[in-house]
Protein: MOXD2 protein
Amino acid sequence: MAALFSRIKGMLFLLFLPCFCSAQPAPPLLRFSNFLDPSNMVYLRWDHDERELMTFELQVRTTGWVAFGFSPHGELPGSDIVIGGVFPNGSIYFSVS
Structure:
């Protein structure tokens, strides 16, 4: 019984090993979040650090592209817009204007 437990414990370690050895950084902890639409298809997460650097994560159910704008008054004139999406071949584009 002890030998079986030892083998199972070793297998569990091997299963969890890729999680600890991943070269990808952990996603940032974003303290604030909100759905931006009544159908809950656009979900925004954000946070800021002590240097006032803002981090955003936008999750959208879409058919291939999304645009997101920042404006001091909630209007299109004078706003900063981010556009991103996926081409039919799977490559990703991202643009700031």
Observations:
- The chain is about 20% helix and 35% strand.
- The first strand starts at residue 32 and ends at 35.
- Strands lie at 32-35, 42-48, 54-60, 65-70, 80-86, 92-96.
